[in-house]
């Protein structure tokens, strides 16, 4: 059995049945001051006041580098000299990089953003689920964690990230809203236990502008 | 039939007074809108079906992630088989080289960017051939310029693979 999606849109305010956390009561109070009773406010569907919860994305500690894992900057290995066949291939790659024209094809980039990866090209819309950025509407961002770049004749893969000099991926914040409401319903049989929570998380939408790559920086890396 | 005012109007709940049962029942009936037969119209049947539907929804939440992961693995495996590599070898090899692309991204590349995917498989074949592992039924890889850097640790997290 499938639930009709549009019925959820009608349930605008967060409702809890037989379980009213304080936040729900506060919201109903704001919307309709007549409903002051905790017991009866849950049965009303009041028009929603769209408010955005303040959330800041924090990098969890498990993703940070431990002290015994830090790089020794003095011991980074240098590349050995290329052989004859390898130098020929490198020349091919350099010529492909030189002759790359963004008008011919549509370049793509794989970007790491808010814990997830997105395959992105010009004019795409990206929705960040569950998080609200500190950026305002209309702000232009540069997405720096680029894992891979692709063009018509060659692709660049970062280990794990490409350097900032090589790439710039620009995006603008287009929309900051709430997602459609989601329902969490807990039921235990024969125990008179039912809990329903309707919650909406924040969502920001970015429009990707342009993907530019710096030819001299890439050729220097080769 | 003309109903008098108190009967026609639903009791509006006030503090410390009885409320109308309409509101709770309407909540369940809103969820049962497109159900079959009287389960969409009668509250006593709708309540049961709606509760079961919610339980299905909750149960799928944990399962959905596993199913998506299975899908991605299947697609990657199918794309790698065209190049003579098992799918797990690709994911393991990329992890050891510290190319941290998702399963989701790898399947997108396999579907929409076949040449980029081929270059990834060539990298993995080169990595394993340097260690002496040759996957069976595999064509020899396209020449890969490594300059001795493929086996070296670029980022600290992979140091355990090189010790």
From TrEMBL, chain A:
GO terms for molecular function: structural constituent of ribosome. GO terms for cellular component: mitochondrial large ribosomal subunit. It holds the Pfam family Ribosomal_L21p. InterPro entries: bL21-like, bL21-like_sf. SUPFAM superfamilies: L21p-like. It comes from the Eukaryota. Belongs to the bacterial ribosomal protein bL21 family. This is Large ribosomal subunit protein bL21m. The lineage of its organism: Eukaryota, Metazoa, Spiralia, Lophotrochozoa, Platyhelminthes.
From TrEMBL, chain B:
Keywords: Ribonucleoprotein, Ribosomal protein. This is 39S ribosomal protein L20, mitochondrial. InterPro entries: Ribosomal_bL20, Ribosomal_protein_bL20_C. It comes from the Eukaryota. NCBIfam families: rplT_bact. GO terms for molecular function: rRNA binding; structural constituent of ribosome. One of its GO terms (biological process) is translation. The lineage of its organism: Eukaryota, Metazoa, Spiralia, Lophotrochozoa, Platyhelminthes.
